[in-house]
């Protein structure tokens, strides 16, 4: 059982996950941000490895990715920044990014590097289920890396069942079909959709993400899922000033 | 060996649908329905009628006598430049708008580089009364002002793509983001044989009219429906895919695809994808693309905005890898000179994209008497400013 699976076994509600882009605001901030977030009460983290063409992302994460790449970030550098991760960080860590950098790094090498460092899973939005099953699944399993799939309001029930079968950590429920960084409108529609998925009684726990930006949207998500994921809102707060201070200020709203 | 798509959406090692879950329902709907819709009799009737009466097809196959004399072979030009809106792009947008209507879509989005595909999309949207939003890189908006004005006059909203390099690749990213955020009522008309399956296959089917007509016209004019060579320029590869389509399985016909070499393939300012690229994933399919060792997409360069793209469609990657097609490149200067040559020998001003295909005739070794078809994918009106600057006209 990896850290992620353990977390979901021990904690059923109020799980807070934070996404941030590696190498942003400064190339070598990656590890320090992870440490600060753990200290401030985050339950697990998604560290984004940047890509030049992030089609699923809105302006904030596009900009952080571009800045990180301009500062020289690569997967190789990210893995070296994280090599001593497990000396100081105990919470589960996922890597999130697009498939092409993984392909160029080599899927096998990527999984190996994750396992060596103690990365618990990945989210690769543009890796389709069919290709994952055919070419990646066994490699991920062998190295104990959980692959996280996304579900949107338009995903069919049949497909959600299939995703549930292929998942072994949690399912990432998108608050709406949208790129990152839009504000969640906790409308009746969204609630009906969350409730519909909750009622499917899946074997994997649910985390809600995209558009979660404050305590109010976090609490709303918690009514239907084990917790929620915050990305753009956090990345935005890192833009200026001291990293540790920014992390503390941001997390105060959620954890005190 | 098959050179066409298999039921999983692959051409050999290339293709597939590498898309985030948010796009899955739309792309899947298209995948399940595109072939049955295209093969409906009512669709075919409407498609063929519009191509004839609105686009002006069949486009002529013209034996360019003076050009033939210069090169010592029979050079036929497939005159896609004479289509309504001035390029082959309209064959695809007519097909896709009819498909979008049958899928019940109310809103059309598109990306454009040179603006030819944007104009062709805005045109069919005006024709059918559908809302149209075209994404175009901020840099291209400045380079291609007349086409921006045409799109606006046609009623389209032109949205500048301000991310990344602000050119075609970024316009494509923005269009994909729009589609993610509008998952129900919108159809994305991709302008080339790129994108997730079924786009490459669908677009090549709509463009296959080019080789379908060519075969008939060759038979009439030469007594044989097979040429020795067919040649076309490749940006994403749609005019080439259409020009090759009905000749692909006939290995006696040599396929020549001409990429944009920019300032030279090793100059750092080039769009010669097969020469500079590696296998990878871009815009939803596995193909060949220009990228760093870390998998970041590299900015291409070409004097012609329509060829200024860091990838090629998956079918082209397959034709290249299997050796079925020959992929070559031509520099900016060579293409401009070829454009001038055609203008002065035949009285036809070609698009700079198409001039790339013509320029490769200089490198061909003919025995004499071969039949060669060059796809003249578009006319040069949009490129006058570039020609004027280059030749001090
Ligand atoms: C006249 C013309 N030819 C060729 C192209 C390149 O596209 P493709 O390779 O898809 O034919 C374009 C693209 O804008 C064009 O306008």
TrEMBL record, chain A:
Top-level taxonomic group: Bacteria
Subunit info here reads:
Tetramer of two alpha and two beta chains.
This chain belongs to the protein called Tryptophan synthase alpha chain
User: Where along the chain is the active site annotated?
Assistant: 46 (proton acceptor), 57 (proton acceptor)
Q: Which gene encodes it?
A: trpA
- Enzyme Commission number(s) from the entry: 4.2.1.20
Q: Does the keyword ATP-binding apply?
A: no
A Pfam family this protein belongs to?
Trp_syntA
Q: Which UniProt keywords apply?
A: Amino-acid biosynthesis, Aromatic amino acid biosynthesis, Lyase, Tryptophan biosynthesis
Q: Which family does it belong to?
A: Belongs to the TrpA family.
* Function as written in the Swiss-Prot or TrEMBL entry: The alpha subunit is responsible for the aldol cleavage of indoleglycerol phosphate to indole and glyceraldehyde 3-phosphate.
Q: Under which pathway is this protein filed?
A: Amino-acid biosynthesis; L-tryptophan biosynthesis; L-tryptophan from chorismate: step 5/5
Give the signal peptide, or none: none
UniProtKB/TrEMBL annotation, chain B:
Q: Name one GO molecular function term.
A: tryptophan synthase activity
Q: Which reaction does it catalyse?
A: (1S,2R)-1-C-(indol-3-yl)glycerol 3-phosphate + L-serine = D-glyceraldehyde 3-phosphate + L-tryptophan + H2O
Cite the EC number. Answer: 4.2.1.20
Xref: InterPro entries: Trp_synth_b_CS, Trp_synth_beta, Trp_synth_beta/beta-like, TrpB-like_PALP, TrpB-like_PALP_sf
| Record flagged with keyword Hydrolase | no
Give the UniProt keywords, A-Z.
Amino-acid biosynthesis, Aromatic amino acid biosynthesis, Lyase, Pyridoxal phosphate, Tryptophan biosynthesis
- Which parts of the sequence belong to the Tryptophan synthase beta chain-like PALP domain? 56-378
Task: State the function annotated in the UniProt record.
Answer: The beta subunit is responsible for the synthesis of L-tryptophan from indole and L-serine.
Name of the protein in question:
Tryptophan synthase beta chain
Native species of this protein?
Pedobacter boryungensis
């Amino acid at each position: 059982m990896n850290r992620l699976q353990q977390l979901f076994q021990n904690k059923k509600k109020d799980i807070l996950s934070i996404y941030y882009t590696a190498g942003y605001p400064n190339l070598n901030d990656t590890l320090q941000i992870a440490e600060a977030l753990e200290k401030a009460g985050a339950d697990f983290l998604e560290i984004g490895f940047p890509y030049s063409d992030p089609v699923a992302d809105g302006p904030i994460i596009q900009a952080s990715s571009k800045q990180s790449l301009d500062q020289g970030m690569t997967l190789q550098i990210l893995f070296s920044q994280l090599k001593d991760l497990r000396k100081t960080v105990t919470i589960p860590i996922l890597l999130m990014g697009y498939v092409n950098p993984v392909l160029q790094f080599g899927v096998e090498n990527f999984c190996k590097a994750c396992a060596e460092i103690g990365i618990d899973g990945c989210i690769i939005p543009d890796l389709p289920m069919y290709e994952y099953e055919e070419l990646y699944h066994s490699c991920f399993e062998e190295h104990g890396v959980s692959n996280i799939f996304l579900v949107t309001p338009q995903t069919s029930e049949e497909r959600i069942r299939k995703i549930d079968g292929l998942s072994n950590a949690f399912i990432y429920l998108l608050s709406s079909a949208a790129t990152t960084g839009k504000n969640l409108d906790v409308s009746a529609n969204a609630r009906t959709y969350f409730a519909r998925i909750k009622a499917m009684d899946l074997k994997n726990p649910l985390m809600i993400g995209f558009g979660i930006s404050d305590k109010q949207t976090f609490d709303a998500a918690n009514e239907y899922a084990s917790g929620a994921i915050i990305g753009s809102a956090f990345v935005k707060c890192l833009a200026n000033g001291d990293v540790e201070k920014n992390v503390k200020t941001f997390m105060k709203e959620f954890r005190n | 060996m098959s050179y066409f798509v298999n039921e999983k959406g692959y051409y050999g090692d290339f293709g597939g649908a590498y898309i985030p879950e948010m796009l899955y329902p739309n792309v899947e709907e298209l995948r399940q329905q595109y072939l049955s819709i295209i093969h409906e009799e009512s669709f075919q009737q409407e498609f063929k009628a519009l191509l004839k009466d609105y686009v002006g097809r069949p486009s002529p196959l013209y034996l360019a006598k003076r050009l033939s004399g210069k090169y010592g072979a029979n050079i036929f030009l497939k005159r896609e430049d004479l289509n309504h809106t001035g390029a082959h792009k309209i064959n695809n947008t007519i097909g896709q708008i009819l498909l979008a209507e049958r899928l019940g879509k109310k809103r059309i989005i598109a990306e454009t580089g040179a603006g030819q595909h944007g104009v062709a999309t805005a045109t069919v949207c005006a024709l059918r009364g559908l809302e149209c939003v075209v994404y175009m890189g901020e840099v291209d908006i400045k380079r291609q002002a007349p086409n921006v004005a045409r799109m606006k006059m046609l009623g389209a909203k032109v949205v500048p793509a301000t991310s990344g390099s602000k050119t075609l690749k970024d316009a494509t990213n923005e269009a994909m983001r729009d589609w993610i955020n509008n998952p129900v009522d919108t159809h994305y008309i991709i302008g080339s044989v790129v994108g997730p399956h079924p786009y490459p296959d669908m677009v090549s089917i709509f463009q296959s009219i080019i080789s379908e007509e060519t075969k008939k016209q060759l038979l009439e004019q030469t007594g044989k429906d097979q040429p020795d060579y067919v040649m076309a320029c490749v940006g994403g590869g749609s005019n080439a895919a259409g020009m090759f389509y009905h000749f692909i399985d006939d290995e006696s016909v040599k396929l020549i695809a001409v990429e944009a070499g920019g300032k030279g393939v090793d100059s750092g300012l080039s769009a010669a994808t097969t020469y500079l690229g590696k296998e990878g994933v871009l815009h939803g399919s596995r193909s060949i693309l220009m990228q760093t060792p870390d998998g970041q997409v590299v900015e291409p360069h070409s004097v012609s905005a329509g060829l200024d793209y860091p990838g090629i469609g998956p079918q082209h990657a397959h034709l290249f890898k299997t050796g079925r097609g020959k992929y070559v490149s031509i520099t900016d200067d060579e293409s401009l000179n070829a454009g001038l040559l055609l203008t002065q020998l035949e009285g036809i001003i070609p698009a700079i994209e198409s001039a790339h295909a013509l320029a490769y005739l200089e490198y061909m070794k003919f025995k004499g008497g071969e039949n060669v078809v060059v796809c003249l994918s578009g006319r040069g009106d949009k490129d006058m400013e570039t020609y004027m600057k280059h030749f001090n006209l």
